[in-house]
Design a protein that fits this description.
Pfam families: Methyltransf_25. The chain has about 250 residues and is an alpha/beta fold. It contains 8 helices and 7 strands; from the N terminus they run H-H-H-E-H-E-H-E-E-H-E-H-H-E-E. The chain has a 7-stranded mixed β-sheet, sandwiched between helices. It is globular, with a radius of gyration of 18 Å.
Length: about 250
């Protein structure tokens, strides 16, 4: 399914009937051949935007999967890069595909809702993972990110503008979320993956409550919608610098 190298329909069905962690352990060897992986165009655009605000010293890729976001951090962080994920299978693939002899990269297995780090990072990024968190979990998740950033540090992630009801994609995402809610109502363990639950206005409010200074910028590579709004934004949430600095390091 998706491509000759991607998972079959049967493999996806087995994944969908598993827990999130077990499902991604199963999917990991073929994950990079599915549409679930963040497109390179988005990764490159975020890397370019971060390069304009950096450099940074130490970066963390939250829910790193097979490590595509770690490659973004390696371009903008001068000292160290860490990928964290709770799927052992995804981390195994990430380790294998990482550039040989790259001493700056570390991989840590942990739950994003209980990060095992001190305030050790100047930059945290995340790509495509937020659908795995229920809205009620966002305050705790954002508090964890806030806790691992140094004062002045930045939490950045891309957000795609939601499709309108006149678009086929709107109904496809609505249908997918509906199927997942029915599945989770009748089957255990739950598999949390909701594409329509992560709304920019609500996310900004939760980031504010977690203590971030929140802004966003358009990613010009993707152009504008018919109403003039960006197709893709990068949210930039900064932990206030206690010393009154800008938060940019170096």
């Amino acid at each position: 399914m998706f491509s000759p190298e991607g998972p079959s329909l049967r493999e996806l069905a087995v994944q969908a009937l598993s827990s999130v962690e077990r499902g991604y352990d199963l999917l990991a060897p073929k994950f990079d051949h599915t549409p679930f992986r963040t497109p390179d165009s988005v990764l490159h655009a975020v890397a370019a935007a971060l390069a304009r605000t950096g450099p940074y010293d130490d970066g963390l890729d939250l829910c790193c999967g097979t490590g595509a976001g770690v490659e973004v951090l390696a371009k903008v962080c001068r000292r160290s890069v860490t990928g964290v994920d709770f799927s052992a299978g995804m981390l195994d693939v990430a380790r294998r595909r990482a550039p040989a002899g790259e001493p700056r990269v570390a991989w840590v297995r942990a739950d994003a809702r209980a990060l095992p780090f001190a305030p050790a990072f100047d930059l945290v990024v995340s790509f495509g993972a937020f659908g795995h968190f229920l809205p009620r979990e966002l305050p705790g998740l954002f508090a964890q990110v806030h806790s691992v950033l140094r004062p002045g540090g930045c939490f950045a992630f891309p957000v795609v503008a939601p499709p309108r009801p006149t678009d086929l994609a709107y109904w496809m995402l609505l249908g997918f979320d509906t199927v997942m809610r029915v599945r989770n109502a009748v089957w255990r363990p739950p598999f949390v993956m909701y594409y329509r639950a992560f709304r920019l206005g609500e996310v900004r409010a939760e980031l504010d409550r977690a203590g971030f200074e929140v802004g966003h910028q358009a990613l010009p590579e993707f152009g504008l919608r018919s109403d003039g709004s960006p197709r893709v934004r990068m949210v930039v949430a900064r932990r206030p610098d206690q010393a009154g600095g800008s938060g940019r390091r170096g």
